[in-house]
Structure formats: C-alpha cells, structure tokens
Amino acid sequence: MNRFWGFVKKEFYHIFRDARTMIILFGIPIAQLLLFGTVITNEIKDAHIAIYDQSKDEVTQEITTKLLSSGYFVLDQYLESTADIEAIFKKGKVREVLVFEAGFAQSLEKEGKAKVQVIADASDPNVGKLLANYTSGIINDYMLKEMGEMQLPMQIKPEVRMYYNEGLESVHMFVPGIMAMILMLISAMMTSISITREKELGTMEILLVSPLRPVQIILGKVAPYLGLSIINAVVILLIGHWVFGVPIAGSWVLLMLESILFILMALCLGILISTMAKTQMVAMFISMIALMLPTILLSGFIFPIENMPVPLQILSHAMPPRWFIVILKNIMLKGTGLLYVWKETLILLGMAVLFTAIAVKKFKTRLE
Amino acid sequence: MIKVESISKSYQATKALNRISFEVTQGELFGLIGPDGAGKTSLMRILMTLLVPDEGKASMSGLDVVRDYKQIRQLVGYMPGRFSLYQDLSVEENLEFFATVFGITIAENYELIKDIYVQIEPFKKRLAGKLSGGMKQKLALSCALIHKPEILVLDEPTTGVDAVSRKEFWEMLKKLQQQGITILVSTPYMDEASLCDRVALMQKGEVMEIDSPARIVENYTRTLLAARSDNMNRLIQDVRNWDEVESAYAFGQFIHVTPKRNEMEAVELEKFLMTQKHEKLQVNEISPGIEDVFMALMKEKE
C-alpha cells in the first residue's frame, strides 16, 4: 500500500510541476466550456432587420413594435422602395426584410386577410430559417391576440411547448456534451501521455525492474487523474449550473456517480492507448484523432444521431460519450433516476471492464 | 552469481547476441568491454529480465531470468545507459520514491549509499534534471543501491561523464564491491577495463575473450611498437603501406604498430621511416595495453 501511495505522490509532483499539464487539466476545460457555451448557439439575438412598410397604418406599426420588442430583432432602417431590399442585403448587416403590402389594415378588416412578405438572408440557411420562423411566430401571435374577437371560422391553434428546455436554449444541450468531451479528453489523453512519457524518458525501464506490479503502476497512474477529473466534473457542473443556468433536476449524487463511472472508463481507455503508443506524440495523436473527433461528431453532441447515415448511426453505438450524454441529459434536464438510465450505465460499465481487461493483458512486464 | 549459457538474441534480421556464455562469481567486479553495438545493453537487459533471449539460459543468484523474473527484480539494482530518473523530481524525492517502491525507507540502508550520497546531499532540493553529469550518475547509483541489492548491473555508467567524475565513480564501485555486492558493468572505454577483476571483450554480439585484464595482456605475445613524427597522417599511411607491418592504429599522440615478424626492433622501423623522410621521429617498443589486444582480436575475427 505504501508503494502505491509513494507512486501516487510522485505522479502529483509530475502534474503540479508541469505548467502544460496544469493548463490542459484546468485551463482548457474551463475555456472550452465558456467558449462552447457562449459561441456555439442556435438562438437569435439582436438580428438586424429592415422594414419596407407600404401601408404605414396602425396595424403595421403595432406588428413592428411587437417584433422589435421581442428582443430577437433590431431595426436597422425603414426602406422606401423594392430596389432598396437587394441593396441592403448586399451590405450584409441586415438579415431579414419585412414587406407590408399597401393598405394592410384595410384589407385585413375588409377581407380578413392581408399580406406581409418575410425575406430572409439564407446564405446561412439555419439562421435564415430560424429568423423566418421567429418572425411568423410573432406575427401569428399578434394576429391571434388582437384579431381574436373577430372569431374567424374554425381555426386550429397548435400550441407548442418545448419540454425540458422551454426557451430552446442551446447551452442546455451543450453542457452535457462538453462535459463528456472534456472528461474523455483529459482522462484518456493525460493518462496515456503520462505512461508513454515514462517509456520515452526510459524511466519505465526502472519501474519495470522494480518490484512494482503492473497493476500498481496502472492504478498509481490512474488515481491522481481520477481525482483531478472528478474536480473537473464538479467545476463544469457548477459553471453550467450557475453561469449558464442549466438546471440539474435530478440527483447530484447519481450525477456524480455516473460521471465517475465515465471518467474511469476514459482512464481505462487512456491506459489502453498507452499500451499501443510508444511515444507521447503518438499517444496524443491517437487521443485527439481517435477520441476527440468522434466524441464531437458521432456522439450526438452537435449533430443529431437520427440524421446520420445508417452506418454512422451504428458506429455511434461504440462511442462511449454517446451513452454518457444520454445519461447526463436525463438526469440534468429531465430529472430521472437510475431506473431510466440503467441501460446506458451498464453499457459504460461494460466498456470500462472491457478496456481494463485488454489494457492489463497488453501491459508488458518487459521492454518488448 | 551470474550465469549466462549460450544466449542468443536477434532483432529482426540483425543478430545482437550470438551464443554468449560467461559466469560472474560472488563479489566480483566484472566488465563487459566493447564498442557501441557490441550487444552489451541487450545482454544486460536480458539479465535484468527486461528482454527474453531467443536461445540459451541465464540465471541471477540461481534464479532463472525468464521464469523467476519477479524474484530477480527484488534483489538486483540496475542503472540503465540513459539517465533514467525523474528530472522533474528533486534529488531527495527521487531517492525517496525508489526507496518506497522497494518498500523501505532511506534511513534503513543509508549506510550503504552514505559515501556516495553525501556528495550530492548539499543539492538535495535541486531538481534531478538540473544536476551535472557526474552528479546525475551519483544519484542514479544511489537510487539503484537504495534497496541493498545483491547484484548491481550498470550499463555504461561513465559514458558522457568527465574524467574526474569517472575516476570517482570507479572508486565508488570498488568500495561497493568490498561490501560484498557483485557488480556487472559495461563500458566502451578500454582504459576502464583494467579496473575490473575480469572482463569480457565483446564485439558484434560475440565474446572474444574472457579473463582478468592483466592476463589478457600477458597472453598477448606480439611485439608492439609506438611511433610518432611531425606528420602523423603521412606517418600512418607510410607504415600501413610497408609490407613488414601487419597493422597500425592511431593511439593518442602515437601510432601503435604490430609488425609481421615478432623479432622486429624499433630501430628497423625507425630506419624505414627515415628513408621515407619523416622528421622528429620517435620510435620505441612498448608493452601492449588492453586496447591493443582488443584491436588485434577484432582484426583476427575479421
């Protein structure tokens, strides 16, 4: 036991004395979280619009006010002719132009309908679609409230509510994803690098000829990173909760236990990588390419799994973060208990056991 | 104490060790002498249970290096060729780490390492990476000794170390030997061979000769002449081109010449060289050193 603690102490010296390691361990996760949380967002905020109001009556004024007070739109300017539309889009700042037909209020009153054209800059299709949706949503809302008393025959009013994320805030989506990504990266990359470093510097030779058993070496390597990764997980959750307002509806204890399971799985994966890689560079390369990219692309973190081609969907089953993200979303957003995530938990557990088994089997007690 | 029986080891196509056999007795200071690529490191790694031989058997203190590798790792001390301590740990922390790895405290075996460690103790708070070459070696030796090994295996401990530190290092080895530790040491420096009890001269994976340095030299019966002049480059060319000469090598400020006839005297060579218009000539007969023997053996092999 003493040997083990001696080894762990040495590992902590390595970690705390290397500025790069400290930055990767604590600087990068926080920076990534803040970046992803604020930069990658599907929401619209202060989109610039222009309005070509050919009617300039009471109703068009009211709609305009409602649009601008929604917080999504900022008025860039009023246009005076159809030709201005093209010109203002070309300038690039304005993302959407609203055109009210002449005599808007009159025709609404007389015929029960009036025309407003929404022209969106779809050079960024997602943003264009979102803008158009938001605009028509706001106009519809106005119509229903203001014109409600007119009692149009048989209107179906779908009322949509976005459960678990009423505001459709993307940060709720991203925090679990970033957490999975960071824990995966830190745990797997740092352990694999720290083991291959011993190989590279030749100290592995001395460790091997010492009475330390492979299990002691492996556990001694894993223990410090397990501790530090748990701290990381807590920090991410706290930032997510207090800075980005991501709810944690379920149990904190379950959330932490699941996180520890995922960290362990990633650490085992790191050891597995280190048994294959001879140098730190190779270990880092494998961790980055083989772990980072699939985590981002195939785990459903950014791109929905349902929309992927079938082969990739099948491949995504092999991605540990995929299951962890499901667990996180369930516990954090839906507040469900273990009963609803036992399947994913079992899968992660299975992966951890599998990786450990291969790693221990592949760990060499000799140099070759 | 160490027994090697016709060990062979290959890496892909290259044969690193070819049927090597020797024995080292209890308390002996045994040297593996040979240039880079002679197979010294491979042999030591096999003995240290780090590599498995392709053929042959070896044992350390009666334990088989393949089967009983776990027990062997308890009772041997090893200093690899490259400085293999933690550079980001201080002198003291390194020593402490290796002590705990072997399940002991520094205090328990302090007596053994005391002579060596006191020399680096003033720098015990310094990071190992910031030590000079000689101090690094002393620290590495301390770490290899901290668990009081029966056998000490040192792979080129003095490579890249200054002359004074080298001398000190060998004095330390002698002291350790007096405490009953069996020592196997490798070195590319021929001058260090004479400091060993017995040496194995190695070349290209084979042992050319095993004996005490003195006897190796004694058994060498060829005449050896040393020569120098004001133009050494031309001198060595001229000597080599003379059909009375078997071989000639540069040795520091002289060239060592092995004539074909053992009876040849220094004057004969001098006369010949005078005909070649060499000036400031200096030729005399010398007794061979271990390096001369090594060169001759190498030539014989070819």
TrEMBL record, chain A:
- Tell me a GO cellular component: plasma membrane
Record's keyword terms, sorted: Cell membrane, Membrane, Transmembrane, Transmembrane helix, Transport
Chief subcellular location equals membrane
Q: Which domain of life is it from?
A: Bacteria
What positions belong to coiled-coil segments?
none
Q: Where is the ABC transmembrane type-2 domain?
A: 132-366
Q: Where are the transmembrane segments?
A: 21-40, 173-195, 222-244, 250-273, 285-305, 340-360
Position of the signal peptide: none
Supply the PROSITE patterns for this chain: ABC_TM2
Q: Which Pfam families match?
A: ABC2_membrane_3 (PF12698)
> What is the protein's membrane topology class?
Multi-pass membrane protein
Q: By what name is this protein known?
A: ABC-2 type transport system permease protein
| Organism listed in the record | Sunxiuqinia elliptica
Automatic annotation (TrEMBL), chain B:
On whether Lipid metabolism is a keyword of this UniProt record, the answer is: no
Q: Which GO terms describe its molecular function?
A: ATP binding; ATP hydrolysis activity
What are the record keywords, sorted?
Answer: ATP-binding, Nodulation, Nucleotide-binding, Transport
User: Which superkingdom is the protein from?
Assistant: Bacteria
Q: Which family does it belong to?
A: Belongs to the ABC transporter superfamily.
Q: Which Pfam families match?
A: ABC_tran (PF00005)
- Would the keyword ATP-binding turn up in this protein's UniProt record? yes
Organism, by scientific name, is Sunxiuqinia elliptica
Full protein name: ABC-type multidrug transport system, ATPase component
Q: Where is the ABC transporter domain?
A: 2-229
